[in-house]
Automatic annotation (TrEMBL), chain B:
It comes from the Bacteria. The keyword Signal applies. It holds the Pfam family SBP_bac_8. It comes from Kosmotoga arenicorallina. The keyword Phosphoprotein does not apply. It is found in: Cell envelope. Keywords: Signal, Transport. PANTHER family: ARABINOSE-BINDING PROTEIN-RELATED (PTHR43649), SN-GLYCEROL-3-PHOSPHATE-BINDING PERIPLASMIC PROTEIN UGPB (PTHR43649:SF31). This is ABC transporter substrate-binding protein. Belongs to the bacterial solute-binding protein 1 family. CDD domains: PBP2_UgpB (cd14748). InterPro entries: Bact_solute-bd_prot1, SBP. GO terms for cellular component: cell envelope.
Length: 293, 432
């Protein structure tokens, strides 16, 4: 059914604005990063020394970087798993015909509308070791004093919870939309055949939701890798020690605080390749199980 | 009527003939420091009708420096930028600045600048940037908690072992959940070195020639770190974050003591609902006496502006150093006033009698021994090295074993290795 444009120039003209944007904001910086990753650069950029692969060898020899990589994998896996399972759970509940449903929906979705800075501040205040209400409640209930400033694992857990919470609204919106496209007749037919609601969920709802789930899988992964900067910057600044220093935060520290542009560029190149491979793998393997109907 | 018109016309002509020179100042002073900066700028603008200084808050010290660099690369740099002390070597090597001694000419009375401040920021006897907000670390303590724990509120600890002993008493008596917390932990670690006349890096702390090796993993550094680890395990030391967040723990009486910059004295005194005491930093027995060291930031003048603008900048920098201005700055923040004249004036008007906590830092730094170890550390990419040390401290304080010294050595050796690589990379770009 595809109709060709009568004019050969027009289609190019129409897509040109977005191509220009992509070139200026994505392609050129990517090439620049690649170029810079072969140099050591002075903070003010007035001196460039070609160092071949020095930045890359330094990267993979650095225990900090390997540590950061592991932390990122744990962080991303946890954020994606938590975000998708809890998001799905809440969406299924919200898809019921409950009283005051719209209010609940709004309440659950608005976490996505909160800026990372505000979300980070809220969580940091709630878990503040000396004055946080959650710390206080846990202290009175279990007599355990939580201090994530002195406990790296705890800090990571709290950042994971905050990051998943932040993405929850986004996941719920898409799951709700997905759930509403599932034809009532299918579920009705299954009920008539005597299927339990658990069985209906796993045999009908889940497979029919798989395109949404797959989409969210990729979006959540990209979020966990690239978009958690603000949250971490406000909450832990990568600490204590390097316990919450995920790759993108380490990149920021090396590039913008420590002013090591060459090294940071090498990190961005590696991060880019890494996420590209992960996404490609997901498309190759996970997409097989996606049912597009 | 005619006369008025003529007068107005002349005024109009003057304003047209005298276009204002606009000077931009980027700074990192937030919270209660922000209005203090604005007061200086407004005072200057009111008295200098031909110059307008526009002060912009540009985020934390690190963010301000990053922004200034980005702006410089885009040829859109501010006239003046406030850079923290760890950025000193970076700025000196940047090729992007105009040294203030060049702006000043021969007549300016540098001798009036307070000794340790002048020494800290001088390179070969010359000032490259204008001292603005200088401070040093002191010990704050909560007199009410001291009383509740059965301690004499007028006898704060003077040594590490006393501090530990008092801290345990405070925790065990339940007077407070924690003994002590630090602001800027890596800076406190640097302070400890200077305070006990220990070099932090080779080549006299990088002041004789560029430093190529750090010394903080030697015996002294290990001793300090091992002590802190012991304190942390016994709940005497409560880690409070990398900048000012420890103040919150102190203000909410979660800890009885706080090592923090004297620049917090104003805000702590105004917010505390208890009696605040301040005293000198605690010493470790068995090490020589040095002095606490200057921290804070200075104002750097950037290249690429017109002669007329530089004249205006110098007007402004002189204004900042004026006795009344720098006195007011000290009063509203707790930072040192920049000049000896200002200290004298403060003394004369009785300020220190009414605000003894504002005096502590002066007495400490002016009574210390003037040794090269305490003149200040100058390292290439010090920002990154301080970050490495902060991480090392955070790692050490999580330790749960009992072999403190061994673990302190392992962590500090590891950190020193990273720091030495940073120094090596710095000399790779700029030479030795």
């Amino acid at each position: 059914m595809q109709r060709r444009f009568p004019n050969k120039v027009l289609p190019y003209l129409l897509v040109s604005p977005s191509i220009v944007v992509v070139i200026i904001f994505l392609v050129i910086p990517t090439i620049q990063s690649l170029y810079m990753s072969f140099f050591r650069v002075s903070p003010f950029g007035d001196r460039l020394i070609f160092v071949k692969l020095y930045n890359f060898t330094k990267l993979f020899k650095s225990t900090d970087y390997v540590h950061s990589l592991l932390i990122t994998l744990v962080f991303a896996a946890a954020v994606v798993a938590l975000g998708i399972t809890i998001g799905l759970l809440i969406s299924v509940v919200l898809n019921q015909r409950l009283k005051g449903l719209n209010y609940y929906r709004t309440l659950f979705i608005w976490t996505y509308a909160i800026s990372p800075a505000v979300a980070g501040t809220i969580w940091a205040l709630m878990f503040d070791p000396s004055s946080g209400p959650i710390v206080y409640i846990i202290k009175t209930l279990f007599n355990v004093k939580l201090n994530w400033m002195m406990n790296g694992n705890l800090a990571l857990v709290i950042v994971i919870i905050a990051a998943s919470w932040k993405m929850l609204g986004y996941n719920i919106i898409f799951f709700l939309a997905g759930l509403q496209t599932i034809p009532e007749e299918l579920l009705e037919a299954a009920s008539i055949d005597g299927a339990s609601s658990v069985r209906k969920f796993f045999k009908i709802t889940l497979p029919l939701l798989s395109p949404t789930t797959f989409f969210l899988l990729i979006m959540n992964m990209l979020y966990a890798f690239f978009q958690v900067f603000g949250l971490i910057d406000i909450m832990t600044k990568g600490g204590p020690g390097n316990a919450t220093e995920v790759l993108v935060y380490k990149l920021y520290r090396d590039g913008f605080i420590n002013l090591d542009t060459g090294f940071a560029s090498a990190q961005s190149v590696v991060l880019f390749v890494f996420v590209a491979i992960l996404t490609a793998l997901q498309f190759k393997y996970a997409e097989r199980r996606v049912f597009y109907g | 009527m005619k006369k008025v018109l003529v007068f107005l016309f002349i005024v109009l002509l003057m304003t047209v003939a005298l276009p204002k020179v606009t000077i931009t100042l980027w700074h990192a002073m937030s919270g209660s420091r922000l209005p203090a900066v604005e007061a200086i700028v407004n005072g200057f603008n009111a008295t200098h009708p031909d110059i307008e200084v526009v002060a912009q808050f540009t985020g934390s010290y690190a963010e301000t420096l990053t922004k200034a660099i980005a702006a410089y690369r885009a040829n859109d740099q501010p006239h003046i930028v406030q850079v923290y002390e760890v950025g000193l070597q970076t700025m000196l090597d940047s090729g992007a600045i105009v040294p203030v001694y060049e702006l000043a000419g021969p007549d300016f009375d540098w001798g009036d600048v307070i000794g340790p401040i002048l020494e800290y920021y001088s390179v070969n006897g010359k000032l490259y940037s204008m001292p603005f907000n200088s401070s040093t670390a002191i010990l704050y303590y909560n007199k009410d908690i001291f009383k509740a724990a059965g301690l004499d509120p007028n006898k704060p600890p003077t040594t590490f072992s006393e501090l530990y002993e008092y801290g345990r008493k405070i925790v065990e008596s339940g007077a407070a959940p924690g003994g002590i917390s630090f602001g800027w932990p890596a800076w406190v670690f640097e302070q400890m070195h200077a305070y006990h006349a220990q070099f932090y890096a080779n080549n006299e702390n990088g002041r004789k020639a560029k430093a190529t090796e750090v010394y903080f993993n030697k015996d002294f550094g290990i001793d300090v770190m091992a002590e802190w680890m012991k304190w942390a395990q016994d709940k005497v030391l409560v880690y409070g974050g990398r900048e000012y967040s420890a103040n919150q723990a102190f203000l909410s009486s979660q800890v009885a003591m706080l090592i923090q910059s004297t620049s917090s004295v104003g805000s702590i005194e105004s917010k505390a609902n208890f009696n605040v005491g301040t005293t000198f930093l605690p010493r470790i027995e068995g090490y020589p006496r040095g002095n606490s060291v200057i921290g804070g930031a200075t104002l750097w003048v950037m290249k690429g502006h017109t002669q007329k603008e530089y004249e205006a900048i110098w007007e402004f920098l002189q204004y900042v150093m004026k006795t009344e201005v720098t006195m007011q700055w000290h009063k509203s923040t707790g930072y040192f006033p920049a000049t000896n004249s200002a200290v004298k004036a403060l003394l004369d008007e009785g300020w220190f009698v009414e605000h003894p906590n504002h005096l502590t830092a002066f007495l400490q730094i002016l009574s210390g021994t003037r040794v090269p170890e305490a003149q200040g550390v100058r390292l290439g990419n010090f920002v990154a090295i301080r970050d490495v040390v902060d991480s090392a401290i955070e790692e050490a304080l999580q330790y749960t074993g009992t072999n403190y010294k061994k673990e302190a050595k392992r962590i500090l050796d590891n950190a020193a290795k990273k720091a030495n690589t940073i120094l090596e990379e710095y000399t790779m770009i700029y030479g030795k």
